[in-house]
Amino acid sequence: MTDYMMNPASNVLVIGSGNFGTALAFHLASLNDSVRMWSRDTKVVEGINSNHKNIKYLTHVTLPDNLSAVGPDFTKEMFKTADVVLMSIPTQHLRHILTKIKPFIRRSHLLIMANKGIENSTLELPCSIVEGCLGEQIAHNTVYLSGPSFAAELVVREPTCVTVASKNAERSAWAQKVFHCSHFRVYLSSDIIGVELAGSIKNVLAIASGISTGLGYQSNTRAALLTRGLSEMTRMGVKLGCDPLTMCGLSGVGDLFLTCTSEKSRNFTVGLRLAQGMSLEEITKNLGSVAEGVATTKSAHQLCRKLKVYSPIIDEVYQVLYHGKCARDAVDDLLNIEPLHELHMIR
Ligand SMILES: NC(=O)c1ccc[n+]([C@@H]2O[C@H](COP(=O)([O-])OP(=O)(O)OC[C@H]3O[C@@H](n4cnc5c(N)ncnc54)[C@H](O)[C@@H]3O)[C@@H](O)[C@H]2O)c1
Ligand SMILES: O=P(O)(O)OC[C@H](O)CO
């Protein structure tokens, strides 16, 4: 029997000390032997090690004694002592960081990716970026985590259910053990692309939902927007060979409901503020944290053109974000499209 099966507690290295990295590190520290968080910012590292606080993200949370910080350099030692390496870096920067840590990654590491998004320069999901940077074997063993999980709720131990997807069932089971506790449940999937695509596109739809709310539209409109958005996501998934049922899971409708209905969502907040007349530049500058949907909108719009997928909502969000289209005109144009058969181009 493999070591981790005998003793599920592990030494964890979390790369990325933002909201989600900090929340996951906090959770993992309660279940595992030791957790180290890597940050590119020396002051964040010092704050965690001297005061048990992250001075930039989730600043109110007191971090436990078995959680320490490392960085800004990467060293061989950090990886040698880790069983689990969890990445929580914004998708547009993932390739750069993976290239840096490549010499230190071993096959024995349980590598978990927690980011959501589609890379602008390549239109690739994180799973393709991992394969391109670290090779087929490591990609085969990597686990992708997604689902409805606000960082701020994880740190108050709100019951949360997520999905992990991997080509390697044993690694998924390991990840399940590493995270599992009474308030954090991990479901399994083998549809990596479906899980990652859903987690990326829901952020674009959350911007749309924020715009709709900001313009004063109410619950009927939101329900229609989410459902028609789900169709766009599903059409993309089907073209990419995913199981359409993945879109009904935690990483699909689960995260779609969460993110499109709450002001706790940064993507929803971006849409809300756009509708209130703020510029995208001003919004992203003041957010203090990444809203992946902003960059993903550009990639999703291009990907739909490439795949020849009908995507009216994604396209309108793209026009608002990148071509200065008035948000109200975008909603009017969506309301004026000719209704098709409801499941048009999905089946
Ligand atoms: N916050 C959440 O509730 C949540 C939940 C689920 C998934 N996610 C996903 O997790 C990922 C990270 O989100 P977050 O909320 O932690 O973002 P964040 O903006 O709070 O933090 C991002 C972290 O990445 C670091 N970073 C940014 N650019 C970098 C670069 N070029 N090199 C190295 N480090 C860099 C920042 O310093 C920061 O520590 C995103 O893909 C997000 O969609 C977030
Ligand atoms: O704050 P958001 O919009 O980035 O959403 C965070 C998570 O993705 C929710 O599952």
Automatic annotation (TrEMBL):
Pfam families in the cross-refs: NAD_Gly3P_dh_C, NAD_Gly3P_dh_N
InterPro entries xref list: 6-PGluconate_DH-like_C_sf (IPR008927), 6PGD_dom2 (IPR013328), G3P_DH_NAD-dep (IPR006168), G3P_DH_NAD-dep_C (IPR006109), G3P_DH_NAD-dep_N (IPR011128), NAD(P)-bd_dom_sf (IPR036291)
Glycerol-3-phosphate dehydrogenase NAD-dependent N-terminal domain segment(s): 12-170
Protein family (similarity comment): Belongs to the NAD-dependent glycerol-3-phosphate dehydrogenase family.
UniProt-recorded Gene Ontology molecular function terms: glycerol-3-phosphate dehydrogenase (NAD+) activity; NAD binding
Binding site for NAD(+): G16, S17, G18, N19, F20, G21, A151, R266
Keyword hit for Oxidoreductase: yes
Protein name: Glycerol-3-phosphate dehydrogenase [NAD(+)]
Keyword Membrane: no
Main location: other
Keywords: Glycosome, NAD, Oxidoreductase, Peroxisome
UniProt cross-references to HAMAP family, sorted A to Z: NAD_Glyc3P_dehydrog
Subcellular location per the Swiss-Prot or TrEMBL entry: Glycosome
Source superkingdom: Eukaryota
Native species: Acrasis kona
EC number annotated for this UniProt entry: 1.1.1.8
